[in-house]
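This protein record is not my work; I was only asked to verify it. Where you disagree with what is written, explain briefly why. This is what I was given:
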Amino acid sequence: MPPKKKPQKAEGEVDVFEEFMKKYNKNQREFEVPKIMRVQEIIQKMEEGEDMRCWNFDSEFDPMAFQVLCHTLRQAAYNDIEAIRLWKCGDGDKARREEPEHQAVRSVRRTEFEKCGLFGSGPNGNKLVNLLRLDYNQFGTVGVERLSQGLSQNATLRQLSLNYCGIGEDGGQYIAHILIYYRNALEKLELQGNYLKERGVVDVFNACRRKEALTEINVFDNKFSDTPEVIKALRELFASNVTLASYNLGGNHIGDEGASKLVHTLMSPGYSHVKEVKITERVATKTHEAISDKVGGGSKGGKKKGKKK
Protein backbone atom coordinates (compact mmCIF):
# COMPACT_ATOMS: atom_id res chain seq x y z
CA MET A 1 0.00 0.00 0.00
CA PRO A 2 1.48 3.40 -0.96
CA PRO A 3 2.02 5.90 1.87
CA LYS A 4 -0.81 8.25 2.69
CA LYS A 5 -0.46 11.76 1.40
CA LYS A 6 -0.48 14.53 3.95
CA PRO A 7 -3.62 16.66 3.61
CA GLN A 8 -2.93 19.96 1.89
CA LYS A 9 -3.18 23.09 3.98
CA ALA A 10 -5.55 25.86 3.07
CA GLU A 11 -4.02 28.92 1.45
CA GLY A 12 -2.19 30.97 4.05
CA GLU A 13 -2.38 28.22 6.69
CA VAL A 14 0.93 27.41 8.39
CA ASP A 15 2.11 23.79 8.25
CA VAL A 16 3.15 23.33 11.89
CA PHE A 17 5.01 20.09 11.22
CA GLU A 18 6.99 21.72 8.43
CA GLU A 19 7.86 24.64 10.71
CA PHE A 20 8.91 22.21 13.44
CA MET A 21 11.17 20.33 11.01
CA LYS A 22 12.86 23.54 9.79
CA LYS A 23 13.59 24.64 13.34
CA TYR A 24 14.60 21.15 14.49
CA ASN A 25 17.12 20.67 11.68
CA LYS A 26 18.53 24.15 12.28
CA ASN A 27 18.82 23.58 16.05
CA GLN A 28 20.49 20.19 15.60
CA ARG A 29 23.13 21.76 13.36
CA GLU A 30 23.60 24.75 15.63
CA PHE A 31 24.04 22.70 18.83
CA GLU A 32 25.88 19.86 17.08
CA VAL A 33 23.87 17.10 18.73
CA PRO A 34 23.45 13.54 17.42
CA LYS A 35 20.15 12.41 15.98
CA ILE A 36 17.80 10.44 18.20
CA MET A 37 16.96 7.35 16.18
CA ARG A 38 13.46 7.04 17.60
CA VAL A 39 12.69 10.64 16.64
CA GLN A 40 13.90 9.94 13.11
CA GLU A 41 11.56 6.94 12.91
CA ILE A 42 8.64 9.05 14.12
CA ILE A 43 9.42 11.80 11.61
CA GLN A 44 9.60 9.28 8.77
CA LYS A 45 6.20 7.85 9.68
CA MET A 46 4.71 11.34 9.85
CA GLU A 47 6.17 12.23 6.46
CA GLU A 48 4.44 9.11 5.12
CA GLY A 49 1.14 10.44 6.44
CA GLU A 50 0.86 8.45 9.67
CA ASP A 51 -0.71 10.20 12.66
CA MET A 52 1.87 10.01 15.48
CA ARG A 53 0.34 11.55 18.59
CA CYS A 54 2.17 9.25 21.04
CA TRP A 55 5.96 9.57 21.06
CA ASN A 56 7.46 6.49 22.76
CA PHE A 57 11.16 6.14 23.63
CA ASP A 58 12.59 2.81 24.83
CA SER A 59 16.35 3.11 24.40
CA GLU A 60 19.10 5.45 25.59
CA PHE A 61 19.67 8.77 23.84
CA ASP A 62 21.91 11.78 24.20
CA PRO A 63 20.43 14.07 26.91
CA MET A 64 21.49 17.23 25.05
CA ALA A 65 19.78 15.94 21.89
CA PHE A 66 16.59 15.44 23.91
CA GLN A 67 16.93 18.96 25.28
CA VAL A 68 17.14 20.33 21.74
CA LEU A 69 14.05 18.31 20.76
CA CYS A 70 12.04 19.67 23.71
CA HIS A 71 13.20 23.22 23.04
CA THR A 72 12.18 22.94 19.38
CA LEU A 73 8.74 21.51 20.17
CA ARG A 74 8.09 24.51 22.39
CA GLN A 75 9.68 26.96 19.94
CA ALA A 76 7.51 25.68 17.07
CA ALA A 77 4.38 25.46 19.26
CA TYR A 78 3.92 21.92 18.00
CA ASN A 79 0.67 20.80 19.64
CA ASP A 80 -0.09 17.48 17.94
CA ILE A 81 1.41 15.27 20.67
CA GLU A 82 -0.84 13.73 23.31
CA ALA A 83 1.62 11.44 25.12
CA ILE A 84 5.36 11.18 25.72
CA ARG A 85 6.60 7.91 27.24
CA LEU A 86 10.19 7.09 28.22
CA TRP A 87 11.10 3.53 29.24
CA LYS A 88 14.63 2.52 30.26
CA CYS A 89 16.17 5.54 28.59
CA GLY A 90 19.33 5.83 30.64
CA ASP A 91 19.93 9.10 32.48
CA GLY A 92 16.29 9.96 32.94
CA ASP A 93 17.01 12.65 35.51
CA LYS A 94 18.64 14.80 32.82
CA ALA A 95 15.83 14.02 30.39
CA ARG A 96 13.23 14.78 33.06
CA ARG A 97 14.78 18.16 33.79
CA GLU A 98 14.34 19.10 30.15
CA GLU A 99 10.88 17.62 29.75
CA PRO A 100 9.01 20.39 31.66
CA GLU A 101 10.22 22.85 29.00
CA HIS A 102 8.39 20.78 26.41
CA GLN A 103 5.34 20.77 28.70
CA ALA A 104 4.66 24.26 27.41
CA VAL A 105 3.19 22.30 24.49
CA ARG A 106 -0.24 22.21 26.02
CA SER A 107 -1.64 19.22 24.14
CA VAL A 108 0.45 16.62 25.99
CA ARG A 109 -1.90 14.73 28.32
CA ARG A 110 0.10 11.63 29.27
CA THR A 111 3.66 11.60 30.58
CA GLU A 112 5.27 8.29 31.54
CA PHE A 113 8.82 7.68 32.78
CA GLU A 114 9.57 4.06 33.75
CA LYS A 115 12.96 2.82 34.94
CA CYS A 116 14.66 6.00 33.76
CA GLY A 117 16.59 6.74 36.93
CA LEU A 118 14.98 10.14 37.32
CA PHE A 119 14.68 12.12 40.52
CA GLY A 120 11.16 13.37 40.15
CA SER A 121 9.38 16.71 39.79
CA GLY A 122 5.96 17.74 38.60
CA PRO A 123 4.78 18.58 35.10
CA ASN A 124 5.32 22.25 35.81
CA GLY A 125 4.26 23.80 32.52
CA ASN A 126 1.48 21.63 31.21
CA LYS A 127 -1.73 21.85 33.21
CA LEU A 128 -3.55 19.40 30.91
CA VAL A 129 -1.61 16.23 31.76
CA ASN A 130 -4.11 13.61 32.95
CA LEU A 131 -1.81 10.62 33.51
CA LEU A 132 1.61 10.72 35.17
CA ARG A 133 3.43 7.39 35.56
CA LEU A 134 6.81 7.38 37.33
CA ASP A 135 7.01 3.69 38.29
CA TYR A 136 10.37 2.12 39.29
CA ASN A 137 12.18 5.45 39.60
CA GLN A 138 13.91 5.41 42.98
CA PHE A 139 13.55 9.10 43.82
CA GLY A 140 12.25 8.35 47.32
CA THR A 141 10.73 10.76 49.80
CA VAL A 142 12.86 13.70 48.65
CA GLY A 143 11.63 13.16 45.11
CA VAL A 144 7.96 12.94 46.06
CA GLU A 145 8.37 16.18 48.01
CA ARG A 146 9.56 17.87 44.82
CA LEU A 147 6.77 16.19 42.89
CA SER A 148 4.18 17.57 45.29
CA GLN A 149 5.42 21.11 44.59
CA GLY A 150 4.53 20.64 40.94
CA LEU A 151 1.19 18.89 41.54
CA SER A 152 -0.19 20.57 44.67
CA GLN A 153 -2.40 22.87 42.56
CA ASN A 154 -3.05 20.57 39.61
CA ALA A 155 -6.73 20.32 38.63
CA THR A 156 -6.50 18.01 35.60
CA LEU A 157 -4.45 14.95 36.64
CA ARG A 158 -6.67 11.84 36.68
CA GLN A 159 -4.15 9.07 37.35
CA LEU A 160 -0.92 9.18 39.37
CA SER A 161 1.26 6.07 39.46
CA LEU A 162 4.23 6.00 41.84
CA ASN A 163 4.77 2.24 42.16
CA TYR A 164 8.15 1.10 43.53
CA CYS A 165 9.62 4.59 43.89
CA GLY A 166 11.27 4.06 47.28
CA ILE A 167 8.91 6.48 49.08
CA GLY A 168 9.32 6.30 52.87
CA GLU A 169 6.89 7.02 55.69
CA ASP A 170 7.63 10.77 55.58
CA GLY A 171 6.47 10.74 51.95
CA GLY A 172 2.84 10.23 52.93
CA GLN A 173 2.48 13.89 53.90
CA TYR A 174 3.68 15.01 50.46
CA ILE A 175 1.24 12.71 48.68
CA ALA A 176 -1.39 14.24 50.95
CA HIS A 177 -0.33 17.72 49.78
CA ILE A 178 -1.19 16.67 46.23
CA LEU A 179 -4.57 15.28 47.29
CA ILE A 180 -5.85 18.06 49.52
CA TYR A 181 -6.02 20.72 46.80
CA TYR A 182 -9.73 21.49 46.60
CA ARG A 183 -9.82 21.21 42.79
CA ASN A 184 -7.78 18.00 42.69
CA ALA A 185 -9.39 15.61 40.16
CA LEU A 186 -7.41 12.43 40.80
CA GLU A 187 -9.38 9.24 40.08
CA LYS A 188 -6.72 6.56 40.47
CA LEU A 189 -3.77 6.58 42.89
CA GLU A 190 -1.13 3.82 42.68
CA LEU A 191 1.51 3.57 45.41
CA GLN A 192 2.42 -0.13 45.30
CA GLY A 193 5.75 -1.35 46.62
CA ASN A 194 6.79 1.71 48.64
CA TYR A 195 7.65 2.09 52.35
CA LEU A 196 4.87 4.30 53.66
CA LYS A 197 4.40 2.15 56.77
CA GLU A 198 1.76 3.16 59.33
CA ARG A 199 2.41 6.89 59.57
CA GLY A 200 2.70 7.45 55.84
CA VAL A 201 -0.34 5.42 54.86
CA VAL A 202 -2.49 7.13 57.51
CA ASP A 203 -1.50 10.51 56.03
CA VAL A 204 -2.62 9.25 52.60
CA PHE A 205 -5.89 7.72 53.86
CA ASN A 206 -6.82 10.90 55.74
CA ALA A 207 -6.15 13.05 52.68
CA CYS A 208 -8.36 10.78 50.54
CA ARG A 209 -11.48 11.27 52.67
CA ARG A 210 -12.77 14.34 50.82
CA LYS A 211 -11.64 13.37 47.30
CA GLU A 212 -14.92 13.08 45.42
CA ALA A 213 -13.28 12.04 42.13
CA LEU A 214 -11.12 9.27 43.60
CA THR A 215 -12.39 5.76 42.76
CA GLU A 216 -9.34 3.51 43.23
CA ILE A 217 -6.35 3.36 45.55
CA ASN A 218 -3.50 0.83 45.55
CA VAL A 219 -1.20 0.63 48.60
CA PHE A 220 -0.14 -3.00 48.09
CA ASP A 221 3.10 -3.91 49.91
CA ASN A 222 3.72 -0.68 51.79
CA LYS A 223 4.95 -2.44 54.94
CA PHE A 224 2.18 -1.22 57.26
CA SER A 225 0.38 -3.26 59.90
CA ASP A 226 -3.13 -3.12 61.35
CA THR A 227 -2.42 -0.70 64.18
CA PRO A 228 -5.42 1.08 65.74
CA GLU A 229 -4.46 4.25 63.84
CA VAL A 230 -4.42 2.46 60.47
CA ILE A 231 -7.73 0.66 61.07
CA LYS A 232 -9.34 3.89 62.30
CA ALA A 233 -8.14 5.80 59.23
CA LEU A 234 -9.43 3.07 56.91
CA ARG A 235 -12.84 2.87 58.57
CA GLU A 236 -13.21 6.64 58.42
CA LEU A 237 -12.20 6.56 54.76
CA PHE A 238 -14.80 3.86 54.02
CA ALA A 239 -17.43 6.09 55.64
CA SER A 240 -16.37 9.48 54.30
CA ASN A 241 -15.57 8.84 50.64
CA VAL A 242 -18.57 7.31 48.87
CA THR A 243 -16.92 7.37 45.43
CA LEU A 244 -13.81 5.41 46.42
CA ALA A 245 -14.84 1.88 45.44
CA SER A 246 -11.61 -0.14 45.11
CA TYR A 247 -8.94 -0.66 47.78
CA ASN A 248 -5.82 -2.78 47.29
CA LEU A 249 -4.42 -3.36 50.79
CA GLY A 250 -2.67 -6.65 49.94
CA GLY A 251 0.91 -7.49 50.84
CA ASN A 252 0.73 -5.65 54.18
CA HIS A 253 0.59 -6.96 57.74
CA ILE A 254 -3.15 -7.06 58.30
CA GLY A 255 -4.11 -9.88 60.68
CA ASP A 256 -7.42 -11.51 61.55
CA GLU A 257 -8.28 -8.94 64.21
CA GLY A 258 -7.73 -5.94 61.96
CA ALA A 259 -9.43 -7.58 58.99
CA SER A 260 -12.42 -8.52 61.16
CA LYS A 261 -12.85 -4.89 62.17
CA LEU A 262 -12.87 -3.88 58.51
CA VAL A 263 -15.40 -6.59 57.70
CA HIS A 264 -17.62 -5.47 60.58
CA THR A 265 -17.56 -1.92 59.20
CA LEU A 266 -18.35 -3.03 55.66
CA MET A 267 -21.25 -5.19 56.87
CA SER A 268 -22.92 -2.12 58.38
CA PRO A 269 -25.54 -0.14 56.40
CA GLY A 270 -24.24 2.63 54.17
CA TYR A 271 -21.14 0.96 52.71
CA SER A 272 -22.52 -0.39 49.45
CA HIS A 273 -20.25 1.99 47.53
CA VAL A 274 -17.20 -0.14 48.43
CA LYS A 275 -16.97 -2.69 45.62
CA GLU A 276 -13.53 -4.27 46.11
CA VAL A 277 -11.12 -4.73 49.02
CA LYS A 278 -7.97 -6.80 48.56
CA ILE A 279 -6.15 -7.95 51.69
CA THR A 280 -3.26 -10.21 52.62
CA GLU A 281 -3.40 -14.01 52.35
CA ARG A 282 -2.45 -14.26 56.04
CA VAL A 283 -5.99 -13.85 57.35
CA ALA A 284 -8.41 -16.70 57.96
CA THR A 285 -10.39 -18.13 55.07
CA LYS A 286 -13.68 -17.12 56.66
CA THR A 287 -12.52 -13.48 56.73
CA HIS A 288 -11.70 -13.62 53.03
CA GLU A 289 -15.07 -15.18 52.37
CA ALA A 290 -16.84 -12.47 54.37
CA ILE A 291 -15.11 -9.73 52.38
CA SER A 292 -15.77 -11.54 49.11
CA ASP A 293 -19.44 -11.99 49.97
CA LYS A 294 -19.75 -8.31 50.81
CA VAL A 295 -17.63 -6.57 48.16
CA GLY A 296 -15.62 -9.10 46.17
CA GLY A 297 -11.83 -8.82 46.32
CA GLY A 298 -9.86 -11.03 48.69
CA SER A 299 -6.11 -11.42 48.60
CA LYS A 300 -5.83 -12.09 44.88
CA GLY A 301 -8.60 -9.82 43.72
CA GLY A 302 -10.78 -12.68 42.61
CA LYS A 303 -14.17 -11.99 41.16
CA LYS A 304 -17.30 -12.44 43.13
CA LYS A 305 -18.78 -15.88 42.62
CA GLY A 306 -22.03 -15.88 40.75
CA LYS A 307 -25.10 -17.56 42.12
CA LYS A 308 -25.74 -21.09 40.97
CA LYS A 309 -28.71 -21.49 38.70
Remarks:
- The CA atoms of residues 83 and 110 lie 4 Å apart.
- Residues 15-116 form one domain.
- The chain has two domains: 15-116, 138-304.
- The beta strands are 54-57, 83-87, 110-114, 131-133, 159-161, 188-190, 216-218, 246-248, 276-278.
